[in-house]
Amino acid sequence: MWKWRLTAAGINLLLGIPAVVPLFLIWYYLANGPLADAGLTSREPTENDGMTLWLVIVVPVVAVFGIIWWLANDWVRPRVSLAPGTYWTAGAVLTLWPVWAAIVTSVA
Prior knowledge:
Elements lengths: L1 H15 L3 H13 L1 H4 L13 H26 L7 H24 L1
Helix pairs in contact: 1-4, 1-5, 2-4
């Protein structure tokens, strides 16, 4: 049972590396769109193509990553003796770990 837990942790940590791209695209869209409209961020001064173009890029990238992440975890999930809520929460946290590490090391 422990080898499947390690497999699940490894899959989610490895998927966290390419997760940097969709998460950055989501942040970029939000920072230049809705959050800038609300006055919480400032727009990129050279961003003058409109946000529709970004939706055309962001939605497919996030959808493909989400499908890959879900399929990988859906394959491992029945083999791990954890409650579904615990498993999916741990999977999401482990996937976000490399992104968090990249942010922390880039600030330092």
